[in-house]
Amino acid sequence: MNTPNQNLPQVVIFGRTNVGKSTIFNCLTEKQQAIVSDIAGTTRDANAGVAEWRGRRFELIDTGGIINLDNFLGTAGKREQTDMIQKKIEEQARLHLERAALILFVVDAKDGILPVDRQLANLLKKILNDHTERILLVTNKVDNYRRQKDQVVEFHKLALGEPISMSAATGSGTGDLLDLIVERLPAETASEEPEVEEIKAVIIGKPNVGKSSLLNSLLGEERVIVSPIAHTTREPQDTLLIYKDKTIRLIDTAGISRKGRQVGYKKKHDGQLEKVGIEKSLKSLEKADIALLVLDINDEITHQDAKIVEEIIERQKSLIIIGNKWDLIETKDVKKHTREIFSHLPFAQWAPVLFLSAKTGAKTKHVLETIITVAEQRRKEISASVLNTFLMKLVKLHRPTRGKGTVNPRIRRFEQCGVNPPVFEVRIGAKENLDKSYTHFIANRLREKFGFSGTPIRVWITKGRKIHGRQEHGRGETDIMDEEI
Ligand code: GDP
């Protein structure tokens, strides 16, 4: 079993055999917005993964592969059986259950409550010292809620709160469950964030555009303190700068400054080197929040630049475009050059563009200022009341556009549900469809009104009503569509 990731809250899937634990695990991790990755630094394990939903990360653990109660069922007497199950759980899953921020206790709606469900529920309560608020009772295999309503109601007898219905086989209810999980997770603790809040940026761009010159120029800035830690920490390839009391971590700068050798090499194996370079940059991009894309303003913007920008946006990173070698430009027409850049990169119009000369150092100070501004914009939160007023004006300006179907969509809720980068949720009726173009319209108006400079914004459409803090169940109502800008 994996060494648990100490920093992330753990969500543990628990229940007897055959209730569908691993299908639920797959469902929760495969849902579009739930990004699953192996836990860094540990061996790969099919039963654990890191999931992310609405900007909240947690570790999901399926105890299905850890405890196997098959051998104990239906064999010995009840008392003996309970003892054996208890022993097995003690040995294998207790640690997980004790550590869990949340336990999904899974039951099977088709089978109803079996004695072993009761036994497990009682053991669970004992292990948690009756802190049942850490348990979410999940009734799986609810393929038709209306028909199976009575079966679901029966599970109230377990006294583990309101059962949440889902069908892991069809995937229905997955979005609701994920919503509920992130709602019920304890508030984010400081330990989930780096100790000192750092701004993580990466310098990226084709060979010879001036990346290392830019790095040197930034390091040479008068007010910058280059932290000596940079060369002694576990990540010697990074450079830490302190500017205006902010810590900026420039990711993988060692690769950039070592490039002198590569230039010579580049001449012989151009294509190959370039490919390796870009792949490496994309890896570094993963670790950063902000990408500084360096362009040589005297050169054409190529397909490769556009590709890098696509990768940046796809990963939801912020973007600052640097038009370098500005000193070589005769007529310094900022507007004309900005237009030129965006004609090649039309999908990144929200990115600030800085024209500068890394060689002479002209205007490089703006780079650090812009990094700080963009980092703030990325974490900006708009209050619900301000968003409500914004929405009222918005729908007056342009009524929500219908997608498929005949029902006119009505926006019932509009909320910001995440930062870094900002994520917004538009909730419409279960049977309504909102045209995709409307989410672009919302995103553009959000930028006009609130800025969000340099930062991608996500606008999701969610369908159905929320009842008692969770989405209503029923056929077709659990379908969550995610729109990305
Ligand atoms: P990298 O491969 O992207 O790291 O590019 P370098 O920083 O090594 O720069 C490539 C070449 O462009 C070097 O000869 C630099 O001196 C030159 N260079 C970099 N920035 C500027 C600039 O702002 N103006 C001018 N004129 N030359 C520059």
Q: Provide the number of structural domains.
A: 3
Architecture per CATH nomenclature, i.e. the level-2 architecture of the largest domain: 3-Layer(aba) Sandwich
Biggest sheet, spatial arrangement of strands: 8-9-10-7-11-12-13
How many β-strand stretches? 18
Put simply, the count of helices is 15
**What's the end-to-end separation, in Å?**
38 Å
The CATH topology assignment of the largest domain is Rossmann fold
Largest sheet: 7 strands, mixed
* Percentage of residues in DSSP E strands: 15-25%
Unreliable parts? 1-6, 32-46, 190-195, 228-234, 258-271, 467-485
| Mean pLDDT over the full residue set | 78
